[in-house]
Amino acid sequence: MEILPEFELHQPDSVATAVKLGAQTGAKYLAGGTDLMPNLRHGLGDPISLIDVSGIADMQAIENTAMGLRIGASVTLQQLVTNPLVLANYSLLIEAANTIAGTTHRHHATVGGNLCLDTRCQYYNQSEWWRKSNSYCLKYKGDSCHVAPNGNVCRAAFSGDLAPAMLVHGAQVEIWSAKGGQRIIDLDDMYQDDGANSLLLKPGELLVAVLVKPLPTFNTGYRKVRVRGGLDFPLAGVAVAVQGRGNKLEQVMIALTGTDSRPILLKGCDDLCGKPLDDAALKALERLVRTQTKPMRSTFIPNQYRSKVAVNISRRLLLDLLMR
Amino acid sequence: MPTNSKMILRVLVNGIAREDLIPVNMLLVNYLRDVVGVTGTKTGCDGGECGACTILVNGEPLLSCIELAARVAGKQLETIESLAHNGRMSTLQRSFHEQLGTQCGFCTPGMIMASEALLRQQSTPTDQQIKTALEGNLCRCTGYVKIIESVRTAIKLNGDV
User: Fold this and answer.
1) CATH code, domain with A272
2) What DSSP element (H or E) covers B145?
3) Hey, are the CB atoms on A103 and B27 less than 8 Å from each other?
4) Which of A11, A52, A104 sits opposite B136 (nearest CB)?
5) Domain B91-160, what fold?
6) b vs e for A247-271, b when ≥16 Cβ sit within 10 Å of the residue's Cβ?
């Protein structure tokens, strides 16, 4: 007997075939599989068919286009961090990608997979018998959330590291479906704050590529805090792009991950600009982070700690980048 | 049972061409251990967190416990068994043996295959590069000092040749 549930496996060589197969009931897309496979091993999901999109040439290219750099969703993280076009203008993407999982994972994990990463929770990422004896949960098979028992929304946390970096770069995503053809939306509009349904993709829709624009006049960086330094999801992660003169902020973009069921592109950062980054400004930044992120009890680490971490790494990174 | 739930898998395992009828939901590590019979590759955590199942696919490291055997069709697989020739251990294996980097031995096949992947890319890596290459490999019995010393010794021996 196999450990994985039974499913059909399709390995299409074009996006058109993939989305046709993906439109069938019970179909699920498979990219690098570094997150999906452990989940299936834990009995999380029971797909009728898996559509392996790792062999589609159109999803493996990185090329300059009129809309910016187009990164195919099946580009592996290892290919991303060694690509000359990315190395030339997108050090933030490289920094964020290098913090994802371990070296071996990065040879197979993909850009699209990390952007569409399933949300995580201490009550969800457990074995079948563990979840069953705990009466399952709102995210899968159950009807109440163990993190917020009175709530009716799943609080599992989005934990992808590329998303905040991409958001800071103003990323757009190219989404294909069998019926609708292609649509291009802001990456920010692909997510919603619902852990059980964090991607605003219709059934069968496939993320084919990401479009990013360079930030040549900005200093950029990514920080994350995790339990196991070598290989772990973020308790909180932050990407910052800043343009300044002396200690004065001119323009700043900040995005966070690991804190909510979606990555958060911080609003109100313009209020920090045009003035020096002093204690008052850092206090204002803390308010922005505290009011717009809400870590819940979805990890073993207390949520108050994650809250504090989100604030502190944002402050430190912003200061470091401005002084650079 | 789904209609296309089985397939013929054609792969090169340690230089030997194979053709096996397998279920498509079979994990690569189970294919290697139970079908091919090369049991050097270990399953530790069963979830891609420990690296004990690391093998090389077309020269790149892969965690075989979270990969489908079906997805490596047509590729070249190398497991720990491929390293020794005519009963002679490879430099990396010998270094792990002599520098006591094997410790309890369970993580060793994964450690050596991950190190092998690194040394093929980079013949003289820094300590930091060694640590980064092995960041996904866990030792639960002793620690990492001897393991890193072993890799360093192999680098030195390779340089002396």
Assistant:
1) 3.30.390.50
2) helix B145-160
3) no
4) A104
5) DNA polymerase; domain 1 (1.10.150)
6) eebebbbbbbbbbbbbbbbbeebee
Degrees (nearest 5) of the Cα angle A231, A237, A239?
120
Binary contact (A107, B132; C-beta < 8 A): no
Q: With CA atoms as reference, report the closest residue to B78 among B34, B117, B134.
A: B117
Q: Which domain holds residue A99?
A: 57-116+157-212
The number of helices, as runs of H, and strands, as runs of E, in chain B is 5, 5
Q: Each residue of A189-243: pLDDT tens digit?
A: 999 999 999 999 999 999 999 999 999 999 999 999 999 988 899 999 999 999 9
Measure the CA–CA gap between A226 and B89, rounded to whole angstroms.
Answer: 38
Q: Which of B26, B48, B117 sits opposite A105 (nearest CB)?
A: B48
- AA identity, residue A116: C
Residues A95 and A191 in one domain: yes
pLDDT digits (tens, 9 = 90+) for A147-194: 999 889 999 999 999 999 999 999 999 999 999 899 999 999 999 999
| Contacting residues of A for B132, CB less than 8 Å apart | 103
User: Which among B23, B54, B67 is the nearest to A33, CB-wise?
Assistant: B67
**Token pair 């993320």 in the structure block, residue:** A207
d(CA A315, CA B56): 42
Neighbouring residues of A127: CB distance < 8 A, sequence distance ≥ 6: A42, A43
Residue A4 CB coordination number (10 Å):
18
Query: A42 to chain B nearest CA, in Å?
Result: 9
